[in-house]
Amino acid sequence: MIPTHELTGMILAGGEGRRMGGRDKGLEPFAGLPLVGHVVKRLEGQVGELLINANRNADAYRFFADRVIADLVMDGAEGGFKGPLMGIYSGLRAAKTPWLLVAPCDSPALPDDLVARMIKGIGHHDIAVAFDGERLHPVVALLRTSLADDLAATLAEGERKIDRWYARHDWCRVDMSDCTDAFANLNTEEEKLRLETTLFNSSAKEAR
Ligand SMILES: Nc1nc2c(ncn2[C@@H]2O[C@H](COP(=O)(O)OP(=O)(O)OP(=O)(O)O)[C@@H](O)[C@H]2O)c(=O)[nH]1
């Protein structure tokens, strides 16, 4: 089992948010909190250091994390916004622990016991990826930070697909088919409104 002090948490919030009009999705107000705040609640206290990976508004994100990191520049040729695999790489390099747990900023309903499930599910593998019963969620993953050099080489080859990089390694799925709804993510204003209503309704039901 991976102890908390050997695990860094990182919330990916480095995207362009094009489908949200170019807004910084992690800072979008959602059910009373900036979106990223909901994901912070799922991870805090269950990881050692908590990082947020963001390519803008670092000052705003700093409030929510121990450290804010931007995407690394590869060979002086690339800046941010090159996709989430670049964010994962930046996290693998920034983490001071043997393990990194990654979660996206735009999934506010992730399970409260996400960290425990991922730790239990990884067994002796090097990468664990959440599986909702139908699809994999490559940005919900637990990884060995010693994979950073390999990922650097893979990025240098031009690879940007997360699942293709995982497939080169000893990886496993972590079954979360009992909580498919937890992986709802929001990309557009419409999805944001719909999910906000769903979440508010469900908490109202729970309160009764
Ligand atoms: N670090 C980093 N994270 C990214 C990048 N692109 C996407 N992400 C993150 O990956 C997760 C999924 O992102 P998407 O919804 O596919 O992309 P997005 O840029 O947020 O939104 P769109 O531009 O509408 O596709 C989110 O947590 C994003 O913040 C990137 O270039 N760098």
UniProtKB/TrEMBL annotation:
The species this protein belongs to is Halomonas alkaliantarctica
Q: Which family does it belong to?
A: Belongs to the MobA family.
List of residues binding Mg(2+): D106
What protein name is recorded for this chain? Molybdenum cofactor guanylyltransferase
Instruction: Name the cofactor(s).
Output: Mg(2+)
Q: Which gene encodes it?
A: mobA
UniProt GO MF annotations: molybdenum cofactor guanylyltransferase activity
Domain characteristics, as noted in the entry? The N-terminal domain determines nucleotide recognition and specific binding, while the C-terminal domain determines the specific binding to the target protein.
Give the matching InterPro entries.
Answer: MobA-like_NTP_Trfase, Molybde_CF_guanTrfase, Nucleotide-diphossugar_trans
Q: What class of enzyme is it?
A: transferase
For whether the record's keyword set contains Nuclease, the answer is: no
What catalytic reaction does the record list? Answer: Mo-molybdopterin + GTP + H(+) = Mo-molybdopterin guanine dinucleotide + diphosphate
Q: Where is the MobA-like NTP transferase domain?
A: 9-169
Location(s), subcellular: Cytoplasm
Supply the EC number(s). 2.7.7.77
Main localization category = cytoplasm
Xref: SUPFAM superfamilies: Nucleotide-diphospho-sugar transferases
The record's function comment reads: Transfers a GMP moiety from GTP to Mo-molybdopterin (Mo-MPT) cofactor (Moco or molybdenum cofactor) to form Mo-molybdopterin guanine dinucleotide (Mo-MGD) cofactor.
Q: Which CDD domains match?
A: MobA
Which residues are listed for GTP binding in this entry? L12, A13, G14, K25, N53, D71, D106
